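quick one: flavin-adenine dinucleotide bound model?
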Amino acid sequence: MNTPNTHTTQKGEFSARVAQHDTFGYDIFSIHIELVGPAFATFKQAKPGQFVQLACRDISNYHCPTPLLRRPFSIAGVNIISEESLLIEVIYHVVGPGTKWLQDQKVGNKINLIGPLGNNFKLPENQDSQIFLIGGGVGLPPMFFLADQLVNYGHNQIIAIAGARSSKYLENAIENHLIPIQNPLEANLYLKQFSRSNTKCIIATDDGSLGFHGNVVQALDAYLSKNPCNNQAQIFCCGPHGMLKSIALFAQSRHIECQVCMEAYMACGIGLCQSCAVPVQTSSNTDEWQYKLVCTNGPVFNSKMILWDKIEI
Amino acid sequence: MNTPNTHTTQKGEFSARVAQHDTFGYDIFSIHIELVGPAFATFKQAKPGQFVQLACRDISNYHCPTPLLRRPFSIAGVNIISEESLLIEVIYHVVGPGTKWLQDQKVGNKINLIGPLGNNFKLPENQDSQIFLIGGGVGLPPMFFLADQLVNYGHNQIIAIAGARSSKYLENAIENHLIPIQNPLEANLYLKQFSRSNTKCIIATDDGSLGFHGNVVQALDAYLSKNPCNNQAQIFCCGPHGMLKSIALFAQSRHIECQVCMEAYMACGIGLCQSCAVPVQTSSNTDEWQYKLVCTNGPVFNSKMILWDKIEI
Amino acid sequence: MDRNNREIKQKYLSEPDLSVTLKNVRLPNPVMTASGTSGYTFELRDLVQLDQLGGFITKSITLEPRKGNPPQRTFETPAGMLNSIGLANVGLEVFCEEKIPLLQRFSIPVFVNVAGKTIDEYVAVSQRLMSFSHISGLEINISCPNVKEGGITFGTDPKSVFDLVHAVRQSCPDILLIIKLTPNVTDITVTARAAIDAGADVLSMVNTFLGMAINIHTRKPVLGARTGGLSGPAIKPMALYLVSRVYQEVAREANIPIIGMGGISSAQDAIEFILAGATAVSVGTQVLIHPGCLTQIIQGIKNYLTEYKIPSIRDITGSLE
Amino acid sequence: MDRNNREIKQKYLSEPDLSVTLKNVRLPNPVMTASGTSGYTFELRDLVQLDQLGGFITKSITLEPRKGNPPQRTFETPAGMLNSIGLANVGLEVFCEEKIPLLQRFSIPVFVNVAGKTIDEYVAVSQRLMSFSHISGLEINISCPNVKEGGITFGTDPKSVFDLVHAVRQSCPDILLIIKLTPNVTDITVTARAAIDAGADVLSMVNTFLGMAINIHTRKPVLGARTGGLSGPAIKPMALYLVSRVYQEVAREANIPIIGMGGISSAQDAIEFILAGATAVSVGTQVLIHPGCLTQIIQGIKNYLTEYKIPSIRDITGSLE
Ligand SMILES: Cc1cc2nc3c(=O)[nH]c(=O)nc-3n(C[C@H](O)[C@H](O)[C@H](O)COP(=O)(O)OP(=O)(O)OC[C@H]3O[C@@H](n4cnc5c(N)ncnc54)[C@H](O)[C@@H]3O)c2cc1C
Ligand SMILES: Cc1cc2nc3c(=O)[nH]c(=O)nc-3n(C[C@H](O)[C@H](O)[C@H](O)COP(=O)(O)OP(=O)(O)OC[C@H]3O[C@@H](n4cnc5c(N)ncnc54)[C@H](O)[C@@H]3O)c2cc1C
Ligand SMILES: Cc1cc2nc3c(=O)[nH]c(=O)nc-3n(C[C@H](O)[C@H](O)[C@H](O)COP(=O)(O)O)c2cc1C
Ligand SMILES: Cc1cc2nc3c(=O)[nH]c(=O)nc-3n(C[C@H](O)[C@H](O)[C@H](O)COP(=O)(O)O)c2cc1C
Ligand code: FES
Ligand code: FES
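yep, here:
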């Protein structure tokens, strides 16, 4: 076959091993999956924004194909532990049969996955740009990985805003969580997954049970009114579409660049089925639009290109 | 509703707990399931020949209904451990998804079951009857339970014949398995599950790797030619239909009463679906026949009534 | 007065009304057994509080007793099962003698399912059964895929559906007639319309989908009858589609209630069928596996109505946007 | 001579022959991708050694580009999935410009799937495609359930099937024509016969089964297009039945090969279809989940033939007793 010879495998289907499994918050868990050999080589290249498709069952058991489809999860971090082995972190909320299955997996169990998938966040060229990483709920995981990368690339003006419905959803990830937050808009090393990159964060909870009382957009707004940013700012965000839309509109009103990491119901995650269509403007100065695939054209998009009004939220 | 008031529940659907899980032989395992409360009261009445329908999955997870159907397993023993709790033993061969799931269950896990189901072996009236308990492969389990009951009821002339393709299928159940069997037709306390009732057995393996070299009918034949039985003999047997048919024909030729415990593909196990039909003579002196249900009319039948020629073996 | 109203409302809110009616027959709730999966009478009593159900539908009865198809008669498939029972049943006479007296003891509505090979057979069985006053209605099975000699043709050909239903209707003018449709057709609204035109009071849908399995080692069909009917969760999306379609295109306008079935395993499934247009639902395969599901489904529907503060199940029948 | 024979036999036994032919097109083995589940060209190359397959079938191409249906477009059901993609595709022009040059690089036979709303559209697309010599054949999708404006009518009405296939056949006399049938009909042998009479070279069966799902919380259909097509393991028993029926009643006699599909996930599934009468098979949904299945199925078929000492896969095609 004359497939271009230069082609190197950018993704693969691999069997991996559960190496660690911790609680992140109420019904939310962090699982570390070990990849070796060819999987190691492939995943060493993984970038923030990318995701994996986990088979939440024994994929070789053809007699019991339920849940049928793989489940997509953002990569929350890549930890290279040796010259042939690395761990990827996935942080997941238990909401249905797939995530329930994940929850039951013990250290040592095998998990089949395909990845890394999708595009990734484009880093700002200027290392001094003011960067906001905004994650809501299980939109946080890609932000942890992005913080790692940004810091690696020398960025130093990073503030993360971690939104949650209530403090319990972050409970086990909070460092020094007994220390009361005096000024909720003062970023600090509150979340373990951010602390590893020394990224300070503001916590915003809908019920005010921890940190700022309000949603992430309100937190950002309040923060900016106290700390107007001079240099060009950029927002990177991930979370429910309602939140992303609010952030996108806010960013647009303030002329802040904004990249959003989208979700979509996925059947394949690898560009085959056209399931994960999201309406996107064809270019910034036209009304024309087309469906783009979250799994291969995304999940990261320039927030201005998304036709939010065409998306059911 | 005017259901007869006198009706007491003879079977039930219960959630039970894995209390013990051991290896019986190669790919064959013995699982002890603890039943308490109403399940205890119901299963205290369980009799040899009866079986249970195990849900080999989490039956409350409607999203993952595979394997869909319950799996039937003979009760291999009932062990009353207190006034409100008992253990039933099930011995199973791993052959497909259901039994594979069983194998993965750890002590403490929950299993949903329906039982006890089916009819049971009818004990000989005469305590001195020569009784042969013949089990092939996973046809042995009901024989273990039957031996317990027979001994309980004062029967004292019991010889069991345990057939297996090879010794490895009995490996972990064999007592003193290092002692070579001098005279393969001399019954002894070879198998743990028979030893608990002090029932001596002959082991017959197809490959001669242990005990008598040959199948159970050959073993019985050889045994009888050395030890002709004077008093009325009876055979109780369970195993693959081919084996049951041979035993039935042998028994008929020797005018020995014979009860067979049949298998059938079952969807419900409780008489609803008509799946488990087996052709049975309407009475012993007629050509007329009808389908009887293995799950409710059986699994135990008088061997003479089964129309073996109508059964695909 | 205002206060009185509020109290009534309060009561409704705390205890939603689950009752539904199939023409003139009131069911205490919409959850029934499906024919062929719950026996003739009290087979399930050890495992289900039968008097809590919405109604009981018996297995199919034919004029003569039937042995049924040769085994193997069922086979598990991914999230489904094939069956080729072939209407094994005791026959009308034994049924009348032995089962009907027991059916009398039910406090819930009882429906007897009728099958046959010829129109005459359907008529004969129906006429005999309609004389028993405690039978609330007949479910006419014109759709069994497992009987070669005719059954399936009745169900797939609109003309035959009309003739059959018409004949039964003429001979049994008063009893509630439920016509059970087969899904194995190009356009189910056509057979549904034929049944209604011929006098059906209620539609019951759907029976099983034709299917087959092969044993690759023996290279023979797994089922003794070669082919069978597929049921269980696997078929739910298809059954739901058919119910929705018949409701939207035929039944709503004709004011004919639908008994929906096909893969229902949970309250969520049952509610989907009700939203799609089913007045009541039947549960088949799942009863074989987990008889306790019947009362759990009833409770689950109750919880759903309570959660969304819907006073009566009838408020959501066919309310799919 | 005798010894020579034995040696040849020996060779066969150690390396069974997996090749099959669809009329004049030889496939190295019977396992292909199913349309719409493996992209246009090399989308799968990171995950599958595409040159090891029996053939490659592209997703459906229409004359104009299509955006497809509004999301949500897929939904998981028990052992199956619903899709209502709605033939989203780049359109004929972009396909010819951008994809066809890539298709040229395939060393295995490539089949392009053609869809449309009108006979003219089918003809236009087919005529354009037949000019590319490395396209081994066209699969005419007359059965997509997700396009309202006609597609489904073509597939369910025998007369329309005939007219459509006839028109394409007339305009493309030489290229291999594969007609993809819908299962949503009362009697699939009728549409199969219509396709054959009009000049089909190969039948491809089946496309998806109509289905639906409802979100009970929003009380709306889950899919943006309300209904969708059911695929995956759940439908296998039904698809297998249809292949078996068409083989026995139509295709064997007419000497028309069948490409079987519907829920194939394992070598066992593929072998069942082949025993039932399929010359080749396509794998759809399972490729979305586990692309590696394609080569595993090929290996599994090889192992099966070796185990049973069957020299060629063709020895068992349709050999169901
Ligand atoms: C690119 C991407 C990255 C993701 N990253 C994460 C992550 O890091 N952590 C995490 O917890 N979750 C993440 N998700 C969502 C995650 O995939 C779903 O929660 C998961 O598939 C649910 O599976 P389930 O079987 O447990 O529940 P299901 O029963 O399948 O679904 C439960 C609920 O979640 C909704 N849902 C299902 N699939 C999706 C989906 N693909 N996108 C959005 N909603 C869905 C369903 O509509 C339903 O309401 C991500 C999704 C995408 C597309
Ligand atoms: C009354 C009764 C008592 C039984 N007792 C025992 C027991 O004590 N120990 C034990 O190991 N097994 C017993 N069996 C058999 C047991 O039910 C099957 O082995 C089990 O259902 C296989 O399930 P699976 O999912 O692992 O394999 P499957 O994939 O379902 O089946 C694997 C193979 O077993 C065959 N099989 C499946 N179900 C049955 C069945 N009901 N009867 C016979 N063959 C079947 C299949 O045709 C297939 O060839 C009993 C069966 C019956 C009917
Ligand atoms: C084992 C079995 C036996 C059945 N017997 C009958 C029958 O006698 N008469 C009938 O009308 N339907 C019969 N059916 C069909 C069911 O009543 C029901 O229509 C179908 O199974 C779909 O529902 P389910 O998926 O909930 O099982 C039978 C189904 C099964 C599984
Ligand atoms: C996501 C998806 C998209 C599909 N798109 C097409 C298509 O464009 N053209 C077509 O002929 N069939 C299409 N099909 C049908 C498949 O080719 C196949 O006939 C069907 O899915 C049954 O096979 P399976 O169960 O292996 O998936 C599609 C199926 C799926 C699941
Ligand atoms: S999920 Fe299949 S194309 Fe994106
Ligand atoms: S298994 Fe259902 S009647 Fe016996």
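Confidence is low (pLDDT under 50) at residues 1-7 of chain A.
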